[in-house]
Amino acid sequence: MDELLTPILEAVGIRKEFPGVLALDDASLAVLPGEVHCLVGQNGAGKSTLVKVIMGAISPDAGQLKVNGREVSFRSPRDSLRAGISCIFQELDLVPSLSVAENLLLADLPGRYGLVDASKRDAHAAELLARVGATFSPRTIVETLSVADRQLVAIAKALAVDARIVLMDEPSAPLTAKELDRLFDVVAELKRAGCGVVYISHRLEELHRVGSIATVLRDGRVVGSYPLPTTPLPRIVAAMIGGEPAPPEERSSVSEAGPAMLAVDRVAVPQACAIENVRIWPGEIVGIAGLVGSGRTTFLRALFGADRADVQASLGGAPYHPRHPSEAIRVGVGFVPEDRRIQGLMVDASVSDNLVLPSLPSLSTLGLVPPGRVVAFASRLINALQIKVTSPRVRAGALSGGNQQRVVLGKWMGGRIRLLLLDEPTRGIDVGAKAELYGELRRIASEGVAMLVASSELDELLPNCDRILVFFAGRLVDEFPPGERNRTAIVNAMVTGQTVARASA
Questions:
Q1: How far is CA 193 from each of CA 34, 115, 127, 188, 209, rounded to the nearest angstrom?
Q2: Coil, strand, or helix at residue 251?
Q3: 170 vs 167, 440, 471, CA distance in Å?
Q4: Using CA atoms, how far apart are residues 103 and 401, in angstroms rounded to an integer?
Q5: How crowded is residue 18: how many other Cβ atoms within 10 Å of its Cβ?
Q6: What is the crossing angle of helices 431-445 and 401-410, to 10°?
């Protein structure tokens, strides 16, 4: 067979099942030398799972992998690396405390007798950085770099191993337009060198610019492969969502009696988001739908004062411009972050210590908080939220995922909370716990608390939210009432940033 027609990478009939979830079902993919093969689909379609199978991070339950026509079996990412496969992950696998050069050449530092030749290391690293258009020094410590510059380091790291197959999982998400141009130059260079590239991106407008062919995954299955030069984007979107988007229902009216609890004129974070004209009324649960890089998390963090941002807003009719989380907490704003174990929970502290943390000023007398007052305060919240724990003094990290999330939520219930911001509140908890959590959110909202809930799970937002805002590329592009009829229109707005004509009421 002609060598150019033999796939450099082939996945055949891949099946992977996790407890209760069929992530991949007879999924196949073939990548030719010098081809950029785009892999697209909604959140949960199976894209990242397929990439993890290819690079040896997880083992398939069935199916075959072939490299250059020969069947291979990877027991670890190291095996796939030896076979010439390199991966750039959505969450970068860099060591923040090491230099750029050390990260780039960590697996093969130049030197002899156990001593590293720093000059050779830095020279080689400089060559790799030049290929991706990076201008910072190889000796720069990674944790001092911006997110975009760290992405460039990750791309250079993939080039360091002279890979013949490069898997790119959302490489463009943190990049600016100028940095994106350089990324495409690197991809073009890989293509000219005969490498096969698997490119995953939620930014569908990139596909025709960077790719040769697009394979669409839906619910773990391949529903079609399309030559990009001749396939219009709406056809790919229709394959992703299972049909043409239906016109959504008219927006339901929102009670505007009195001032909005939150009125956002503008929230702007350079190169990340510029969200305008958002109004949330007391008792509302408003969902935020959007793909990776849409600005959901950035928006919520800015509203909580966790990141530097230009916030022009009001809370309960009073100006609201938080510069620090303490300012947000002081006026009744709480935040449940995406990563509860790192950002929302003190895992080695007791449940009671976690629950009282934001309320310590109100519980203290002359700067001291009596232990009995802490336990009584925490016990009340444990009972109200039905946190399953034998004692308030139990270590928070020992709880189940659902109960940990209740603790993160509960710490905001002790004070006079007016606005609650939640980022992926059900991540990592089971179905039963999810239902209970949303039931608790509705109970809290019934007391007049306004909520903004960002989630990648549209199946959760549709039945549990009063309205759904759609973010795309850092902008608010549309707003929808809940309901299954609006699903395809919402997904269309999420993946294209465009809306369809409204149906009459």
A1: 7, 33, 17, 9, 18
A2: coil
A3: 10, 34, 17
A4: 33
A5: 11
A6: 10
pLDDT digits (tens, 9 = 90+) for 288-297: 998 877 899 8
Tracing tokens 């139990």 back to the chain, one arrives at 394
C-beta of residue 429 within 8 angstroms of C-beta of residue 371: no
Split at pLDDT 50, 70, 90, the class of 96 is confident
Question: 294 with 203: CB under 8 angstroms?
Answer: no
Taken in order of first residue, the domains within the chain and their CATH numbers are 3-84+163-241 (3.40.50.300), 95-161 (no CATH), 262-349+417-496 (3.40.50.300)
Q: How far is Cα 39 from Cα 215, in angstroms, rounded to an integer?
A: 5
* Residue-wise pLDDT tens digits, 27-72: 999 999 999 999 988 767 888 889 999 989 899 999 999 999 999 9
For 395-424, the three-class secondary structure string (H helix, E strand, C coil) is EHHHCCHHHHHHHHHHCCCCCCCCEEEEEC
pLDDT of residue 251: 44
Report the alpha-carbon distance of residue 266 to residue 312 in Å, rounded: 5
| Token pair for 381 | 């919240």
Distance CA 304, CA 202 (A): 27
Look at residues 354, 351, 355 and name the one whose alpha carbon lies nearest to residue 390: 351
- Kindly state the tokens that stand for 483: 């309901």
Note the Cα 28 to chain centre separation in Å: 25
* Tens-place pLDDT, residues 375-430: 777 787 777 767 777 777 788 777 776 778 788 777 777 667 899 999 888 776 65
Which of 423, 451, 437 is CA-nearest to residue 283?
Answer: 451
Mean of pLDDT over the chain:
82
Would the pTM of this model clear 0.70, i.e. be above it?
Answer: no
Q: Tens of pLDDT along 171-187?
A: 776 666 667 777 888 88
Among 8, 64, 68, 15, smallest CA distance to 36 is for 8
Which among 193, 231, 234, 241 is positioned nearest to 211, based on CA atoms? 231
- Residue in 171, 168, 156, 164 with CA at minimum distance from that of residue 104: 156
Smallest Cα–Cα separation from 414: which of 343, 329, 350?
329
Give the tokens for residue 231.
């396939």
Burial code (b: 16+ CB inside 10 Å, e: under 16) for 323-334 equals eebeebbeebbb
